[in-house]
Amino acid sequence: MDDQIGRFCWQCLQLDPSPDFPPGKVLRDEQVQELIYNKLFAENAVALHLPQRYRLRILKELTSSIESAIEDWDEHGISDNLMTAMSDLLSAPLPTETVAAQQRCHVTYHLSLLETEPEASIVLLESRSLISAAGTTGLRTWEAALHLGQYLCKNPSLVQDKRVLELGTGTGYIAVMCAKYLGAKQVIASDGSEDVVNNLPDNFFLNGLQGSEGVTASELRWGHALVGTEEQEWNGGKKVNVVLGADITYDVSVIPALVGTLEELVVLSPAVTILIAATERNRATFESFLQVCAKRGFTVTSEKFPVLPRNEQRGPFYSDLTPIHICKLTH
């Protein structure tokens, strides 16, 4: 019972569009209803509330499931707290779907594979629309980042006490994880979009990393020289031990520039470990990435770490229908 409820709550906190509701015979229990209310809907349930439209939809489905499961209203009922929460939402003005789609919202990801901290989570402020008006895809967290994060949670020694550079950091999910939970010595969260880089401090703050010297945001454009005219050495001469990237190979046109940057990083840090997580949405695009790597002298091997079936995931939650490769590059 606890596992079903916990999984449902974590799915809701991640704003999963189709969370798995526990069975009605579980939901009709008064203690279960109070537990869900306290985790998701109470004033002090979470530091950051779920978006109004999402909260209302989940509450409607939840109360409907409870009502359908009740056979004896003398024995079971619907929590007064849940009904009050529903009434408050119904009486409040809700943003239109169009306005809601443009709003940034707080998304909480449960790190279920982090054995040292069972309740570990990362909270990010995201734009849930797929692509922002500025054309960047970096304002939401994509599946490959979630999968790479799971891999790192199972293999924390890869980044512990290491200097880590993330390319195409987006919302900063991987960077935050490395800095907050995996014991990295230094994390550089880099992206080629100025808008994305400017949003990163918000997500550092949400995860208690404000003012931390362990993680910094940096604009880094692939294919451009790492060292500018005003700098004698990149990163103050400190070599990076690990380069990470997730969902950064989806556009064939940028792959040569990406691999060019990887080449330059290998020159600066010859012993660097490079891990790229790539969602195979299009086989031809993935093959293009492999071909460019081969031409530039990189050997690409795939780590054995399949995506868990959806019904076995305990957080974060992401599609199991599309392969996600975790590629290790050596030069």
From TrEMBL:
Alphabetized Pfam families for the sequence: Methyltransf_16 (PF10294)
Stored InterPro entries: Methyltransf_16 (IPR019410), SAM-dependent_MTases_sf (IPR029063)
A GO cellular-component term linked to this record: cytoplasm
Highest taxon in the source lineage: Eukaryota
Keywords associated with the record: Methyltransferase, Transferase
CDD domains the record matches: AdoMet_MTases (cd02440)
Keyword check for Zinc: no
GO MF term list: S-adenosylmethionine-dependent methyltransferase activity
GO biological process, one term: methylation
SUPFAM superfamilies in the cross-refs: S-adenosyl-L-methionine-dependent methyltransferases
Residue ranges of coiled coil: none
PANTHER family to which the protein is assigned, alphabetical: HEPATOCELLULAR CARCINOMA-ASSOCIATED ANTIGEN, PROTEIN-LYSINE N-METHYLTRANSFERASE EEF2KMT
Protein name: Methyltransferase-domain-containing protein
Lineage: Eukaryota, Fungi, Dikarya, Ascomycota, Pezizomycotina
